[in-house]
Design brief:
heterodimer, A: about 300 residues, mainly alpha, two-stranded antiparallel ribbon, 2 strands, B: about 190 residues, Rna Polymerase Sigma Factor, Chain: A, Arc Repressor Mutant, subunit A, 2 domains, two-stranded parallel ribbon, 10 helices, about 0% strand, globular
């Protein structure tokens, strides 16, 4: 009896082993019912069908688990870029990395436009000669290879490059002609005293043009002048000849001047240099330059 | 996974709550049943840890919803194996009652007749009859819905090996369970 059962079981086993790949896949996928299952596999078909059915929801920990997941993601550093082809619109807007921006056509067009504008502006500036001298020289060299001629960089009259050469004579025309001439002569008179150079905004080494059109240099060292020679010009600097008519203000200002000599060791320089001659508190440029400069440099 | 909305993985990667909830509701039931193969009674605790690990892996994850499903069950399998090893080191081990019930019937394979059975009952019988390696492959294929290739990826086996294990599992199940013999009228009523 036992042997018979054993042989019967073996036959059953051998019958059940004949399960081809396709039938197995259909069983696993739930496409096979108990009625059309292979021999001996009806129970398996029922079992797998039952296992496939959705169980009651086991979402008791959903809120807690989702909160923990959210916190875990928030604790992580910046999300790495991803390349999911099925990205949704939300991710497409948030995941616009720099690499994507560079790859976009808009960025390329913007970069090309900016480059063209830069090249055009540089070329225009080079053509007009308004670039700084090193840049102008470099641009000129580059454009020379392209058979494009641009002006050479301008050279400063002191040897340093500059955009435009300064005038050879300080102009003295217009409504402020007298004031300009006064400033110019004051500067010339103070030449040789370093502290005065910063106090007077006029280039001191240029000859001054009087309002009547003549030119006066008035160098304290007694340099020659294009104007008719004056006796006081040959006197050394630091004397009262600084206020002589030939080197300072015209005649209408000459009478208001105080002597250009600095006060000897006066503790209050401001009170000593304010004119009190009824000129309304106005000081000529010449006297301003001299009196302001003398205490600073300790002029003898 | 077709029930998931588009862009759910990208939103979940950014920590969007709606996306995490959608993933959880879609995958958690199958995850719990899969974990019950090796960690019966502790599958919910393990599932919580698996979800946390998956969330930490999300920012660096590249792929779609199917890829995330494979990632989730790969993490789950490793967690379950680690849990099983820790449990093996214990002096005492809580026994599965259902396994003990079927232990005495090993010599009479065709005595179990399937009549009306629910999902949990069917899963309990699969776990009781099949060894863990075969049970997890059957569950990954039947309940999770992975293909042979995906199961091979999750379990770290070759696809051919997965097919062989799957065949053995079906034969073993067929030896233990048979369908009830019913009259045609009864079958029509039952369906």
């Amino acid at each position: 009896m036992k042997d018979h059962d054993t042989w019967s079981d073996l036959e059953d086993e051998m019958g059940r082993k004949r399960l081809d790949e396709r039938s197995a896949d259909r069983l696993i996928a739930g496409l096979t019912t108990a009625d059309d299952a292979p021999p001996g596999y009806a129970g398996v078909a029922e079992l797998l069908r039952a296992a496939r059915t959705a169980p009651p929801a086991t979402l008791a920990r959903e809120t807690m688990s989702v909160a923990r997941m959210k916190a875990a993601i928030a604790e992580l550093p910046v999300p790495a870029p991803v390349t999911t082809p099925e990205a949704g619109p939300l991710a497409a807007t948030r995941r616009r990395t720099w690499r994507n921006v560079v790859r976009s056509g808009t960025a390329r067009a913007t970069a090309a436009t900016a480059a063209l504008l830069l090249v055009g502006a540089t070329g225009a500036a080079a053509a007009t000669g308004t670039l700084p001298a090193p840049a102008q020289e470099a641009t000129r060299d580059v454009l020379a290879h392209l058979s494009v001629n641009v002006p050479a960089p301008a050279v400063h009259h002191h040897g340093s490059p500059s955009g435009t050469a300064p005038p050879a004579v300080v102009p003295a025309s217009g409504p402020n002609a007298h004031a300009t001439f006064g400033l110019c002569t004051a500067s010339v008179a103070a030449d040789g005293h370093p502290a005065t150079e910063s106090a007077i905004p006029v280039t001191p080494s240029l000859p001054c043009r009087r309002p009547d059109g003549t030119i006066a240099t008035g160098s304290p060292a007694g340099q020659s002048d294009t104007a008719p020679a004056q006796p006081g010009l040959d006197k050394p600097s630091g004397t009262e000849d600084h206020s002589s008519p030939s080197t300072s203000a015209p005649s209408d200002h000459a009478g208001d001047k105080t002597p250009a000599q600095p006060p000897p060791a006066s503790p209050d320089h401001s009170t000593s240099t304010i004119p009190r001659d009824g000129s309304g508190g106005r000081r000529s440029s010449t006297e301003t330059s001299v009196t302001d400069a003398a205490p600073t440099v300790g002029h003898p | 996974m077709s029930e998931l909305p588009d862009g759910v993985i990208d939103a979940a990667r950014l920590g969007e709550e709606w996306a995490l909830t959608a993933l959880y509701r879609q995958l958690h039931p199958a995850l719990v049943r899969f974990l019950a193969v090796r960690a019966r009674g502790e599958e919910e605790d393990l599932a919580t840890d698996v979800w946390l690990d998956a969330a930490r892996a999300l920012p660096g994850f590249e792929g779609d919803a199917d890829g995330f499903r494979r990632l989730l069950f790969t993490i789950a399998r490793r967690r379950a194996i680690d849990h099983h090893r820790k449990r093996d080191r214990r002096r005492t081990e809580p026994a599965d009652v259902e396994a003990l019930v079927g232990a005495g019937d090993q010599t009479t394979p065709d005595v179990v007749v399937l009549d009306e059975i629910d999902a949990e009952g069917a899963l309990a019988r699969i776990r009781a009859v099949l060894p863990p390696d075969q049970a997890e492959i059957v569950i990954l294929r039947v309940i999770v819905g992975l293909s042979v290739g995906e199961v091979a990826e999750v379990t770290g086996r070759r696809p051919g090996t997965v097919s062989v294990i799957q065949h053995r599992a079906l034969r073993r199940l067929a030896r233990h369970f048979t369908a009830p013999v019913r009259e045609p009228a009864d079958r029509g009523e039952s369906r």
